[in-house]
Design a protein that fits this description.
By secondary structure, the chain is an all-alpha fold. The protein contains 11 helices and no strands.
Length: 269
């Protein structure tokens, strides 16, 4: 029963943090260690709960996606959007494919990668808010240029580093490229569709051998919790960025990063 509650807590953390620009991977790594979550599944549990968050995203945008499928042949904005998604997906897709094992073996080993990434990312959020002040911005996410999409894709490459945050990197990258905060956030969600689907399906395909009969209860609990909390987080974030800066997330990242560094210095965790 104790492990079940831990699975639910980790599922909630995944759901709330996957689409907020604060790094779900970083939070899960730290939380799993603090909770001492005992699982013989390797990284399979984390993959499953990420699938729950991905499913929530698809369901949240289902109406828009269905409409786009119906209109894509004669709608220039829809065609432009998905061409930009493809352009933005390619950099991280290619690099992630070729250095996937190196990332797991090197960047996920050092406990200092996550806190440093959190702090640097938090600082960049304050920097980008200063950078865009008074500058012309693209307000419609369907009207981003190919150059802007490529800039977002380049930023997404950085999210391969644990603690950076895929949503954080793409939102900040989009803003530096001239997109409004709301447009960058909305485009980040659309870019997450192929990115998370392909990454999750690839990981799932190679992970089923690690699952035993008793593991399915933990997987179900974590995945369902992640889906519910991710839906809540998506709805909240889209409303929040329409009228607020990234300062809250930047400050949170810096505080959490410094806290983790302090715990490491004290030999805790």
């Amino acid at each position: 029963m104790e492990e079940l509650w831990k699975a639910i807590i980790l599922g909630a953390i995944e759901g709330f943090t996957e689409f907020l620009p604060i790094s779900s991977t970083g939070h899960l790594l730290v939380a799993s260690r603090l909770l001492n979550f005992q699982s013989n599944m390797g990284g399979t549990f984390e993959i499953f709960i990420q699938f729950g968050a991905t499913l929530a995203m698809l369901l949240y945008f289902a109406r828009d996606l269905i409409m786009q499928v119906r209109t894509v042949l004669h709608s220039s904005p829809v065609q432009r959007l998905w061409l930009n998604v493809v352009i933005a997906f390619i950099p991280a897709g290619l690099i992630g494919f070729f250095i996937h094992d190196w990332i797991k073996e090197v960047l996920f080993v050092s406990p200092y990668v996550v806190p440093i990434s959190l702090i640097v990312g938090g600082i960049l959020m304050f920097v980008v808010e200063w950078f865009v002040r008074g500058r012309a911005q693209t307000a419609d996410f369907q009207q981003l240029s190919a150059k802007q999409a490529l800039a977002v894709g380049g930023a997404q490459v950085l999210s391969l580093i644990p603690g950076v945050s895929r949503s954080g990197a793409t939102i900040v990258g989009g803003m530096f490229a001239g997109a409004s905060r709301a447009a960058a956030t909305r485009f980040s969600f659309y870019l997450a569709i192929p990115t998370m689907l392909i990454a999750t399906m690839f990981e799932l395909a190679t992970s089923f051998d690690n699952i035993t009969g008793s593991d399915w209860v933990l997987l179900a609990a974590g995945t369902i919790t992640a889906a519910i909390t991710a839906w809540i987080a998506i709805a909240w974030l889209l409303r929040y960025v329409a009228t607020h800066t990234l300062a809250l997330f930047g400050a949170y990242r810096i505080v959490v990063g410094l806290l983790i560094l302090a715990l490491l210095a004290l030999g805790i965790g």
